[in-house]
Amino acid sequence: MNILITRPLIDAEDLMGKLFSLGHKIIHIPTLKITPAKLEPIDAKEYNAFIFTSANAIRNLKVTEQDKNKLCFCVGAMTEKIVRLKGYNNTVSAGGTVNALKNLIINSDQINEKSKIAYFCGDNISFDLDKELEKDGISINKIVNYFSEKITDLNDQNKKIIESHPPDIIFVYSARSALSFLEIVKNHSLYPLMTESKVKCISKKVADIFSTGEWKKVEIFNQGEELLQLEVDK
Q1: Which of 20, 61, 141, 160 has the greatest number of beta carbons closer than 10 A?
Q2: Strand pairing partners for 2?
Q3: Widest CA span of the chain, in angstroms?
Q4: For 15-41, what is each residue's pLDDT tens digit?
Q5: Beta carbons of 145 and 120 less than 8 angstroms apart
Q6: Half-sphere exposure (CA, 13 Å, Cβ side) for 177?
Q7: Contact in structure between 34 and 147 (CB atoms under 8 Å)
Q8: DSSP one-letter code for 155
Q9: Phi, psi of 48 (to 5 degrees)
């Protein structure tokens, strides 16, 4: 199959390698450019716990002294895996949604009204997790430690690849990425080649962005289950 991946290379390289080894043709069209925020290192001792809702928040984490036992709340299994690779061993995963993460934190027996939590995230978020937690009396310090910029251009080489090998499946991982991808398709008049593709979206919110247009095959998948999705689509 021809598979189009929209994630930045650092997030997609492992998956792309596995797909290629299985005989699939890979089209890599990154839709977001990630840049770190210019911040001084955070004093981890000031906080009882950390919250991470993306891999980029972990990669751009800067602390004065790492505490491997720091309680880390993670939005999903993949985020938790990257946190553990960073060296943290006291981690909890919410299973993939920010709303579930909110409930996990609220119901945690390790968190109370006296706890202070650092929430690391990007400049563009779809759910105000900090404000929702504050409604329940939890003290949150939201720290934007990276920025995401939409990529809306397409080089000639990738355009030729798409024209020669229209994707059978497109994986999209965020609402912002979806909007950027749609701009690319529009700017380069690729709708006739793309709208027959099966679009796999990380959430209903992302899927809804495609359901309002000409896209005919839109589905939701869980991050980390891309290979399983391809088995189902055979």
Answers
A1: 61
A2: 25
A3: 59
A4: 899 999 999 999 999 999 999 999 999
A5: yes
A6: 23
A7: yes
A8: -
A9: -85, -25
CATH number of 12's domain: 3.40.50.10090
Q: Residue for token digits 């965020």? A: 174
**Structural domain span for residue 196:** 2-31+151-233
| Measured distance CA(152)–CA(26) in Å, rounded | 19
Tokens for 155? 């080089």
Whether 78 and 114 map to the same domain: the answer is yes
Pairing label, strands 32-36, 139-150: antiparallel
pLDDT tens digits along 182-222 = 999 999 999 998 988 999 998 888 999 998 778 989 999 88
Q: Which of 148, 176, 199 is the last residue of a domain?
A: 148
Q: Report residue 171: phi and psi, to 5°.
A: -100, 125
Enter the pTM of the model.
0.83
- Distance CA(86)–CA(45), nearest Å, equals 17
Q: pLDDT of 46-80, one tens digit each? A: 999 999 998 999 999 999 988 999 999 999 888 89
